[in-house]
Amino acid sequence: MSKGLQAIGMHKRFGGVHALDDAAISVEPGRVTGLIGRNGSGKTTLFNCITGFIVPDSGSVTVDGRDITGAGPQTIVKAGLSRTFQTPREDARSTVRDAVLCGCYVQSSASFLGALTGLPGARREERRIGLRADALLERFGLAAQAEAPVGTLSMGLVRLVEVARAIASGARYLLLDEPAAGLSAAEQDILSAQIRALASSGVGVLLVEHNFSLVLSMCDRITVLEFGKVLSEGAPEQVARDPGVIEAYLGAIERGDTGSTQ
Amino acid sequence: MKQLRNHANSAAALLIAVLFALLLRDPVWIDVAVVIGIQALIALSVGLSFGQAGLLSLAQAPFAAIGAYATGIISVHYGGSPLAGLAGAIMLPALLGYLLARLVIRLEPLAVALATLSLAAIVEVVIRSWDSVTGGYVGLSGISPLAWAASPREYFWLVLLVIVIVIALYENLLASRFGRALNTLRHDRARAMADGVPVVAVSSAAFGLSAAFAGVAGWLYAHYVSYVGPGDLGTHLSISVVLMAVIGGASYVLGPVVGAIVLGVLMRMLPAQELQGLFYGGTLILILLVARDGLLGIAEPWFARALRAIVPQPARVAPEDERRT
Amino acid sequence: MTSNQTTSVTRRLAICACLGLTLAWPSFAQVAPLKIGALLSMSGPAAVFGIPERDAITVALEDLNSQGGVNGRPVQVIFYDDRTDAAEAGRGVNQLVSRDQVVAIIGAGTGGNVLAAGPIAMRLKVPLLAPVGTIAATDKKNAFLPWVFRVAPSDAVNIRTILTDAAKDGNKRIGVFYQEDAYGKTGVDVAEQLAQSLGIQVVGSAPAPYTATDLTAQAIKLREANAQAIFMQVSVASLGAGFVKAARQVGLNVPIYGSSGLAQKSFVDGVGAGAEGLRVLSIGNLVYDPSPGEKKLSDLLRAAGKVPQGWGELVGTNGLVAAIAAAKSIKGEITGQSMRDAMENLCGLEAYARGKGCWTKDDHDGWREDALVFTEIANGRLRTRK
Amino acid sequence: MLLFTEYVIRGLFLGAMYGLLALPMSLAFVTVGTIDFAVGAYALLAAAIGATVGGTLGALLGLAGALVASLVMAAVFVLLKRAGHHDTIMIALSSFGLAVAIGSIVLASWGSTAFVRQGLDAVWTVAGIRINPQGPINLAVGLALLAGLTALLFGTGLGRMLRASAVNAQGAELAGIPVVAVQALIFAAGGLLGGIAGLLILYSSGLDFTAGLSLTLSGFAASIVFGVSNPARGFLGGLAIGVAEALSAGYGSGAMTALIPQFVVLLTLGLGMLGAGRYTGYRP
Fold first, then answer.
1. Is C330 a member of any domain?
2. Do A85 and B191 touch (CB under 8 A)?
């Protein structure tokens, strides 16, 4: 039970709104877990509570048995949890390689004064994370674009850069916030292949998605949120058959409320 | 090769400095150059805090004043050596800058600017009212000159040396994880947090460092002028150095230095007295209209081309699609 | 190619012509003008004084040159703007001496600037004629003291004169309103030092920055301190005028004394009708009731299209007249060193302003009480009190 | 207690001045997202002209002068936008250039003498406190302008356009709002508001050629201390700083007088955490 990322009994109120009401989710290493739900169902809030961008009112988050509830993002990243953003927040002018290097922040132990004075130790660290970034670029097929500004890349490649940047921290758990939003079908295929490859290398992936078919095709397990509560949880085919889910979620799709990007 | 690229700015600065130093003969221009050099150092501190970390500070001149007073007090009251003064001139502003940053860094940028402005006013009041230590309104006179840089020409060499060292440190920092973190958090703090950057600590450290740069400039000022008064390194200079950094190109390492030289020389060339401000303000608007990323922003493409022509590029494996054609 | 040749031919011709002129009138070289520097705050906050100083020096120079300059040798004044900035003042001394070769400098524009310029003047061996009241400018502690000569009454003299007058009228409880700078702070400090010996008491003091837009709080504070008279150590006209108005508004109806910094036309204009009887100590009374010397300067200024302001003009020309007098007294070569030496022996010097300048080896405060007059505001003018 | 009340009332009158200066600054911030550093210079120019000509005509000419100056700023703004500047700091810096230029023009044309005009001589005594009507007039003008501005911003179509362009310039452009023109209008309004403040200061206490920058900084501080989100907060900030200054001038001594308002600003910023959420992600 100690392996894995678990969030249990999560509560969060914004003013009078109960955004999370005893929500829970668990992510296992080497598996892709999907988190779905309608707009306002609380999935982004849960995501932000886990990654430390919001402090939950109550509940507990553990990574491989370590309690990280209420910790700041930097502690959580160090604990092995990395996230991406729904809308990419990359600096258009920075190069792809620099963006991935930025993700290596917690991988380096160079001190501020060491970096400032250019001590040999700091330079060694710098060389080491340089190699790490290059290896990641190679792995994600971004080596050719290493020196290109992020702003010149297609949306699909920007998503890949984001994933590479997130994993550069040495994360064992990767939390992706609607990574397929705005991608063409071909780009989605490349991305899901990379995510699957990551999972098979032992990384636990949490996918927040609107796109139900993508989640069904990619995920090993799925959690459905509704009004801040867990509506259903299980294997994709099991969830897809759940009458509550069909009523609340798939019904909504039939009504045209897909909201795949927003 | 890599090392040279990393330190291209300090190498260029060194080159320009040596050229300047060899060309300058007129004692008046040497004196002008010393003061421009000191202002360039403060402008560099703006480059670090504003250009890299996106924190607009209007307290850089007061940080320099703290540096100047630290060494002045050690020199005048205790007869201490300028080196002891240098330690004080670095530590005090750094500490104050760091603490202020810890307090206000969470605010939005304009509020940070206002907080620095308040700090500047507080520093000025303390300097004015602490008669027994700072000499109050009258100021501190009789600060000992540096024995090893007695003539203006020697002092000019010293200022150049300090600038080159500061630029080298600045580059070291930029090429490290902290430099990248600063650039990220200037662009988007949430992005930096997601990288695991302790945003408050890193920006505060950078702010403290930038204050220390300004403090060193103040140290140079105090030992050069041998007098420091409460009105000397004030808000006007704080604004001037921001202008210098922006005009030269705040995000470029050498931008603030270029801006300091351009504005400094401009101030000498413009007709003096009443209408000076008109020319100064007009020129400023003109430069802003013409040069978006500062003067270096204009020069960059041109410079990159020249550099490619001179320095052979490191062998690069052409990506597949290029090879095919 | 051709144009190059033309240039060089022209240049040669010009050189020949110059040589010819020099040979034809050998005296030409000898009457090269005597150069004096004027390092004034012509921009920045102290421009209030620097610009009248510059204007007066310019018109007085013409006048003095027409009277034969220094024993027939014309005097040239080279202006340098110190921008009310200490580093700039130091640089100004440097430039005036090493590039323009001046033998004396009128300046710098403020007390702080004198302190910054002093060491450089000492190193370059050129005397400063300081048109400032700041006490510290001629402090015995200053290593550069031998090179600084004050051409205005010092603040200590001003303040003592005012407080003595107040005490004479039986006002024992004095409130001080002062501006936040060296000039203002000196007012409180000196008043407190002198209080005992004059039998008065400083019951309250209220400072304000130059740019204060409302001074009623300061006036209330001094009213609550039960001051019997107010002494304003202020040189910023709008600040002085603002305080007087505020005092009348909050019911602080006691005699008000203004320091010599306020003897300016813009203060008198600004303070308006509520200020009848307000007493202002003044260096001369250039604007409203000039002495014969002041009248002459005032006429010169008006002829040049300038409106006399009343403070800077007098101290500025004191400096010019003193420099010329020192140069006249030198027998041999005129250098910064010989100028300095000559100044220490100048006494009984009369300029356009009232009072006689006198320096000795031990005392570099040239002008004293006899340069000052007490004035009262009456009908929007400063009336000299008899 | 009466004394305390008296100081507070004085502080409110003084604060009205800062609040007046804060109005154009927060207007520019709310709608363009930048700071117009030349506001103090508009005030100075209006006061200089008003003092020279005098009377109603002087006031009108002063306002016209300030308006011309702010039209220059509007033109510079349009040119900057055309040149592709979107960084608001650049716009702020060019307005600083204009402020320096205006200060210099005033110094060259009017010299270094102070501008002071005799206002109203009457004194009202209200509950033992003597008040010159100029103070209440300043406060009333400030409140009236504030009410007008608020009505304009939140009650009219133009106001909606203004706010929309500030929140999302691209979106507003797509919705057919001439964003740049609308924002240029804001800079011009800054001249009018700054000019009114300058004229009131001329009749209250007077000012000289150095005043431009310090007036701007006062307005800047006032507009930001409670958050720059709308003009009402800016005006309130001005009142707060005015009261803090009056109380510290009355009860403090020497250095304390100058320090207290600064500490008030720092504390408000440090504790108030205004706009904190926006820049620390969503983390409180």
1. yes
2. yes
Report CA-CA distances (Å) from A240 to A40, A173, A243, A247, C125: 20, 25, 8, 11, 96
* E strands, A50-93, in order: 58-63, 66-67, 81-83
Does position C19 have pLDDT exceeding 50, yes or no?
no
D262/B122 Cβ within 8 A: yes
Nearest to D221 among B114, B125, B279 (CB): B114
A3-54 tens-digit pLDDT: 888 888 888 888 777 888 888 888 888 888 988 887 778 888 888 888 888 8
Question: If DSSP codes are grouped into helix, strand and coil, which group holds residue B233?
Answer: coil
Interchain CB distance below 8 Å, A105 and B177 = yes
Report the neighbours of C using a cutoff of 3 or more CB pairs below 8 angstroms: B, D
- Per domain, the residue ranges of chain D are 2-280
Q: A55 vs D284: CB contact, 8 Å cut-off?
A: yes
The backbone torsions φ and ψ at residue A174, rounded to the nearest 5 degrees and listed phi first, read -115, 125
Question: Rounded CA gap, B270 and C332, in Å?
Answer: 39
Nearest to A20 by CA among A30, A29, A8, A3: A8
- E strand or H helix that includes residue A208: strand A204-208
Task: Decide if C51 touches D, using CB distance below 8 A.
Answer: yes
Please state the domain extents for chain A: 1-80+171-262, 91-166
Q: Decide the pairing of beta strands C105-107 and C75-81.
A: unpaired
Sketch the domain layout of chain B as residue ranges: 2-310
pLDDT of B4 above 60: no
Tokens of C29: 């070289």
Q: What is the CATH number of domain A1-80+171-262?
A: 3.40.50.300
Based on the structure, what is the number of domains in chain C? 2
Average pLDDT over residues C167-191: 87
What are the backbone dihedrals phi and psi of residue A67, each rounded to the nearest 5 degrees, phi first?
A: -80, 120
The average pLDDT across B58-84 equals 89
Q: Is C7 inside a domain boundary?
A: no
CB C242 within 8 A of CB C212: yes
Q: For C216, which residue in chain D has the nearest alpha carbon?
A: D10
pLDDT of residue C13: 46
Q: Same domain, yes or no, for C55 and C165?
A: no
The structure's pTM equals: 0.80
Question: Is the pLDDT reported for residue C60 higher than 70?
Answer: yes
Mean of all residue pLDDT scores within chain A: 83
Residue D120 clears pLDDT 80, i.e. is over it: no
Q: Select D2-280's CATH number: 3.30.960, 3.40.50, 1.10.3470, 1.10.3480.
A: 1.10.3470
Considering only alpha carbons, which residue of chain B is nearest residue A117? B169
- For chain B, what is the radius of gyration of the CA atoms? 20
Contact C203, C226 (CB under 8 A): yes
Average pLDDT score over residue span B38-44: 93
Q: Is residue C11 in some structural domain?
A: no
Cβ proximity of C82 and C92 under 8 Å = yes
Residue B211 has which token pair?
A: 């204050």
Q: Are D232 and D31 in contact (CB under 8 A)?
A: no
Domain range B2-310, CATH class = mainly alpha
Mean pLDDT score of chain B, rounded to an integer?
A: 81
Q: Residue A55 and residue A19: Cα distance in Å, rounded?
A: 13
Amino acid letter, residue B273: Q
Q: Which two tokens stand for residue A241?
A: 């058959």
Measured torsion, CA atoms of residues C81, C82, C83, C87, in degrees rounded to the nearest 10: 150
For residues C64 and C142, state if they share a domain.
yes
Mark yes or no for CB contact A73/B320 under 8 Å: no
CA C2 from chain center: how many Å? 56
Dump pLDDT digits (tens) for A177-201. 888 888 888 888 888 888 888 889 8
Please state, in angstroms and rounded to a whole number, the distance separating the CA atoms of residues D153 and D31.
9
Same domain, C181 and C329: no
Give residue C378's domain range: 156-288+373-384
